[in-house]
């Protein structure tokens, strides 16, 4: 009994020390928020480069609202959705998987790749060949083969007489890609060229030396040796090989091996391995712990607000219209706008015909009406229909606002233009004229109401004495 009491005293003492090191800054619906968690989020959202920085008191309210939405999402069991779990694990694993790959594993892959390169040379040096190539198809006739032979021999004679190999490659080679480089292929080792080309290349010893024409399975070649060298040292090629392997996803491949190996060893699923490794990594890295929690909470918040606020608000057209009418002055503008269509015609007579056609037609159907009447067989009228601002379109300025007529230069093939619509001087006539702004504001209002309801639902306690020590302890 005495030992048990001593153990409990020791445990209480340890917990007290931990609480002093990382005290509780606030409590939301019974859930503690430590100072370190709050500091992580506050400092991240007020780091260098953040435009809309907040002071501590401003951020407290934002953080509480954030946590309340997450709390609501958890109460709605959104964390049990398969779609949420999949997305969260995808983000989380991007952070955890690379930690499961030891630095020595990547280094071993680089070394193995270099050793294989060295082995593949089979004692040879690297060669840099160039060629002049005349293509011969497998179904080439005897006459075509004879003509190609005469042509390749003629090129070879010119080379022996002192002609420049690169010039002849550019002019005559059927391998256009290497031809642009004067015939140069690339540094190669054994078994990287056609057998006939390789045999011809290895017969050359000195740079600039040219071999007699040879016939391969695809045509005639004249090979020139541009250079030869031993494989560079491991140290010199290390960075190049590493970059190549990284581009091919070597870390992902090694992470897959590590996860699969642990799953087999522990007799559990890959998902369970990742859960265990996440817990282990987060226990040793506080920033990582809060980053993973940020993924967890952020995705929940987005899902909760999408379901409870943003999507319902965007579909509530009656609510949006009522909100617009109540706040119409907010969307007033000082510059006149034109709500309508500007159109361009091939024939002058169509300008009045379009205008006449659209009289009495609902503006939502203008484009369809013009298309069916004028553009059935071929396009004779082009259209732009939207909310135009003064100075935004030269034709609208000229035709509607009667200014800057010289700037409205007739379009090629559609030289005749006209406009139909309404000038709006003080502001939009309907909320749909400025739908993006109105919907965003309406969603923001609904979100404020949602947060107010959450504040009534959940108890929030902020410990001012601990808050004063944020970034100051």
Question: Can you offer a commentary on this structure?
Answer:
With about 475 residues, the protein is α+β, with helices and mostly antiparallel strands. About 55% of the residues lie in helices and about 15% in strands. It is built from 19 helices and nine strands. Strands 2-1-9 form a three-stranded antiparallel β-sheet. A three-stranded antiparallel β-sheet has the order 3-5-4, with helices on both faces. A hairpin with a 3-residue loop joins strand 4 and strand 5. Helix 13 crosses helix 18. The longest helix is centred in the middle third of the chain and has 30 residues. It is flat.
Give the structure's gist in a few sentences.
The chain contains 19 helices and nine strands. It has helices spanning 2-21, 35-44, 56-75, 82-96, 103-120, 142-160, 165-172, 176-179, 195-202, 234-247, 250-266, 270-284, 286-315, 317-326, 349-358, 366-374, 394-399, 435-457, 464-467, and strands at residues 24-28, 31-34, 126-135, 214-215, 219-229, 337-345, 381-389, 416-424, 460-462.
Topology, pairings included?
Elements: H1 2-21, E1 24-28, E2 31-34, H2 35-44, H3 56-75, H4 82-96, H5 103-120, E3 126-135, H6 142-160, H7 165-172, H8 176-179, H9 195-202, E4 214-215, E5 219-229, H10 234-247, H11 250-266, H12 270-284, H13 286-315, H14 317-326, E6 337-345, H15 349-358, H16 366-374, E7 381-389, H17 394-399, E8 416-424, H18 435-457, E9 460-462, H19 464-467
Helix pairs in contact: 3-13, 4-13, 5-10, 11-12, 12-13, 13-18
